Amino acid sequence: MTLNATPTAPPARARRRRTPLAALAAVLLAAVALPATAGATGASAAPAVPARYAQQHLAWQPCTEEPSLECATMAVPRDWHHPADGPDVTVAVSRHRVADPAQRRGTLLMAAGGPGGTGLLRPAGFVHDAPALGAAYDVVGFDQRGVGHSTRAVCQTPEEFQAFFAGDFRDDSPAARERVIANSRKLAADCEERSGGLLPYLTTEQTARDLDLFRALLGERRITYYGPSYATMIGAYYATLFPNRVERMVLDSNIGFDGTWEQFQLGQPMSFQRRFEEDFLPWLAARDSTYHYGSTPAEAKARWEQRRAALHDAPLVDGTLTIGPNQLDNGSIQGIYRMNNGFSLLATALTALEDWPSADPAARTTARRVFGDYLSPEFLAEYFSVTCSDTPWTRDLSVWTARGTENTARWPLVGARTLAFSAVCAAWPAPAAPKVRVTGAGLPPVLMLNSVHDPATYYEAALSAHRALRGSRLVTVTGNGDHGQYPGPNTCVREVVESYLLAGRTPAHDLTCPSPQAG
Question: Which of 94, 252, 483, 515 is catalytic?
Fold first, then answer.
């Protein structure tokens, strides 16, 4: 691949000279008192932030779970638009500092996907896999409001939550639909009842404002940002609200942040089915000598469907583990996010289901991991708070019943759960988040990455987001469907990203990176 690049801003120098404490407090207060609202509609600018937030000190200590990182906590308003109302929210933050301050060019902030993923410890893995960036940037992360070590939403116990995924989402009988809707409504009601009024404030827009306070408390005028999956939406919202705070930004595997969550999620049944049938099943069939699941994609698919039907009739129960048809779907969904490890783990787990009592113990352990550990009530508390509240959602269940039937027939892997997930949003507390329209106004060029067969953040949505984010450059990764492209084995992607983040070389136009041929 040939890179045609143009330089952007020059590299930042080593850490800036510190101001006296009183002056620094004033600078921090000014930095967060008048947040930008470019692209925001339906809400006025957030009021001035009380000094108790702007002047707080981050008390860094080694992270208990990852000593290579430092951790701290910061207090943020529950509602940035009414900061005096309600209890504070705690956000856990982390950092990995450069070894040689003379080589430091700034701070790179990274966020986690989901919504519902935790990001506090991610800088450790990031600098391990991208050492050139770890040598040039302080890499900082956080658990966004609602998850992990931050103030968390509470929905159900694991035992209560089992009912949500019980049964078979493909069952379209009236009794099954009523049971699914009742379980969805109960999940929404339990989340609202047990989260102490927090749910309306677990939104992408509120998180973006948390990040700008974090930036200010770090003493940075501008930050560089890397975000995969849902974190692309966090980055796009942050860049829209605070364009003058962005130095460089990489958005990897993109949510359709130009539209609504409803529009985006209606495309996922197609993309997951495409990944399953066009990538995973051919991969599995080509390894019939290893997994014995069929020598053609059609044979492998038929075998998978037979196993699903058998689990419908007689779910596998082993102690606390239950694997029914929905768990088979969930594990298959999880396994196809990435070819490396994901495909092989799923294939191994499938072989264990063929004869559970006599299966290799290691294969059974893998199956427990693949089919028994997909989503949790903690994850979904944040997931539904964001997806149900960021943007408007249709609340007419007759619409979702019809769409569920259609999606199950066309794209059953994910389409079968359409009614269950949509009924949660239909029962979720009314959204209070202001609309944020992403345009790219006032931003430096943003670098976007996306594979053509990504199941979760599908390419069609990435194209639409790319068009909305004016001035962005899209790197299309062909011959690939992995979710998350950097850091990874693709040298073309790595060269583009690191040339951009380290040397300020922005591709002159969109470009394509072919994938290395898998062995």
Answer: 483
Helices (H), 88-195: 122-129, 131-136, 158-161, 174-194
Rg (the chain; Cα; Å): 23
> By three-state DSSP, how is residue 137 classified?
strand
What tens digit of pLDDT does each residue of 14-45 get?
A: 333 333 333 434 434 444 444 444 455 434 45
> Is 483 labeled as catalytic in the residue annotation?
yes
Instruction: Dump pLDDT digits (tens) for 87-112.
Output: 999 999 999 999 999 999 999 999 99
The single residue of 229, 253, 464, 515 carrying the catalytic annotation is: 229
Asked about 360 being catalytic, the answer comes back as no
* Catalytically annotated residue among 168, 212, 454, 482: 454
Catalytic site residue 454?
A: yes
Q: Which CATH architecture has domain 24-152+204-260+436-514?
A: 3-Layer(aba) Sandwich (3.40)
Length of the chain counted residue by residue: 519
Q: Tell me how crowded residue 427 is: count the other CB atoms within 10 A of its CB.
A: 20
